[in-house]
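Office hours follow-up: a student asked to see two folded examples consecutively, so here they are.
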Amino acid sequence: MLTRLTLATILLTSAAATAAPDDGTVAGIDLPAADTAAKKDEYVLSVNKLMYDRYAKAPDKEGVIFYAYKVIEPGAKTTKFKTPGSEDSAPNLLVIPLPKGGKAKVGDIILTWWQSGSGMKRAIVMDAKDPTRPIVRYLDIDYDNPATGGKDRKTPIGQMEEQLEADSFVKIDKPFQAGSTVACGKTSVDNVIRVSGDKLLLAGFAGRLVVRPKAECVAMPQKPKLKVGQKIQAKWVSTIKPATITKIDPKIGRVWVTYDGMGKDEKALAYGHVIDKL
C-alpha cells in the first residue's frame, strides 16, 4: 500500500519530469534557449505549467494556448509570471511580450488576447478615441461562430466589439513578428511565436508547436491589398486552397471567398489568412 509520503513523491517526480525545464528549452522543439524583452509588471502571452505539462507528454499530439499573464521576473532563459492564485514560469521561447505604452489607430492590426474570453488573438482596431484602450474586433475568431457575446450577449463573438485594457496589446507591423501569420508551402497557415536564427517557432492547427525553416515560409500580409473577383490563396481549416474573392470589408478586416471546386458557399476569412499568391 502506498503511504501518503510515497504517493506525494511519485506525484512530484512525475510533475518534475514534464515541467518546463529551467534551461529554457521546449519539449519536442529543437531550438536553443532565448532571452526575452519582457519586463516586470508587463503583460506577456505564454503557456502555463498545467498546459505545458500536458503538451510535454506528447509534443507531436498536444497543442498549447497562449494566455495573458503579468511578469514577476524576466530571466535570461525563463520568465516567471503571475497566474490566478499562484505563479508559473515558462521558457522564453514561449513568452511573447506586450510592452507597456501601446497606442493604436483605426485599422491597425494588433496582437492581444480575447479579454472577455481567453487566449491569444489578433484584432483590428475599430475605434481609437482612446488610443491606449482601443475598441477592437477579434480576427482569430470565426466570423460566423454561433456563440454570442458583447454587451448585449447576443452578438456573434466573431462580430462583437470590445474595448481593451491599457498596456495589453502590441501593433503587428512587421513580417514574421510574433503573433503574425505565415504560410509554409500550401500545407498550413500558422502563427509566429518566435524567430530563432533562420528558423520559425510556430503555433499551428489546434495550437500544435512546430519549427519550420524561415526560408520555406511566406509572411501573410496583415492588411492585404485585394479586389473583388481576384483569384487568391486562402486558408481552409489547416491548409491553403485556391479561392475567389466575392466581398471585402476592410473596416472589419474580413474577406469573403468561394473556394475553387467547392460550390458557391461563401466563407468569411480574416486578414492574415489570405494572400494573392504563393
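And the second, which I mentioned at the end of office hours:
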Amino acid sequence: MVGPVPKFDYAAAKAALYADFPHLFWQRQIPQSSMSYGPAIGPGWYPIIRELCVRITKAIDVEDLTDPKATKWGFAQIKEKYGELRIYGPRDGEGGPIYEAYEWAEEEASKTCEVCGRAGDMQVSSRGWYATTCQPCADENNNSD
C-alpha cells in the first residue's frame, strides 16, 4: 500500500526555481504572460523542470545569466495539457542541446506521475480527464469524483 502524498509547497518550489534560474523565468514578471502564474503542473513534475533548467543553463554556457544570450531562452509557459507536459519557449533547432533538453523533459514526464513523481503513465479518469499518474494516484482521483 502506498501512503498519502505529502503536502507540496508550490510557493517554495516556484521561489527556488525563480532564484536558481532567473534567466529562464524572467517572463513571470510580466502580468500578461502565462509565466506570471508559474509552472501549471503537479508536484511530481517539478524535479523534471528543475533538471530541464540545469540542462538549458549548461547549454547556454554564459557567465552572466542576465546576458541577452541567456535570457532569450526564457520560458513562455509550462503546463500540463491532455496529460502531457507542455513547455513553450524558444528552442535551438532539432538536434540542438536545448531542443534535446525539452524533448527529454517531455519524454520523462510521459512516464512520471504528475502528482507524486513515481513511475506513471497516461490515465483517463472516470470523468474523461487525461493525466499522467501512477495507479494509486489515479485511483485516488477517481474516488474523489
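Two things to take away from it. Residues 10-110 form one domain. The chain has two domains: 10-110, 113-145.
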